[in-house]
Amino acid sequence: MRVTPLLVCLVALPLFGCSPNLGPQTYAYLSGEHDLYAHCVDQIRDMARLVPPVLQSSFDKNIREREAQRQRGYLRAVNAYYTLSIQLARQRQTIIADAQNKIGALDARGVEPDAVQLVQEYQRFLGDRANLFAEYEALIRDEQKQFQIKQQPRLALDAVKGIEAGLADGNYTVAIVAFANAALKDQSADIDRQTQIRAHVDRFQELGTTAERDLADARTLRSQLMAHYENRYPNQQWEALIRPSAQEK
User: How many domains does the chain have?
Assistant: First the structure.
């Protein structure tokens, strides 16, 4: 009778607990997460970017009607700019939710438990990103509401563009600084407005700090696990699952 490694493991399993080879299932599971996550990040970055409207000046002082038309057109463009900002924020939240659902539906049977933990870490980070876009949406809704009342943008439109770009590119600190610098320069703000601004600034800072921390934790765990799996399951291409930093946020 020929003794094979499988037979040895089956005989010894009750006594010594031979561990099964979870390498292929774990690799397939992490590969699925890798592709879905990368697609989500690419979609967020590749969406249309904001282009602030500009009020063109005219030196013809005698054509008041044209000046009034130009002003009305500019105000409509600003309102549309806010509307587009809100739409982009909501679309990015939808993209993230879709990725989370698909990643959550991956088959985790026969997968290393710490690989499942790693995926959960990235799921948490995607939730952080969604929260940042939700806060950005809330901010722009406040700005649009006040603009429709006063017919005057409170935040510089270039600053709104900077916040949106920072969030889309994963540069949360840049986004937060852009918002804080623009918002806190509003010297005409009344007490309620100042309170509202401070609440948004604090919330952005809190969410940005959480996102950076969760991403750092996930990166550390990924690096550790890929090194561990390369030693334990050398037949899989684990290095292909190591994402560059720029592709993770």
Answer: 1
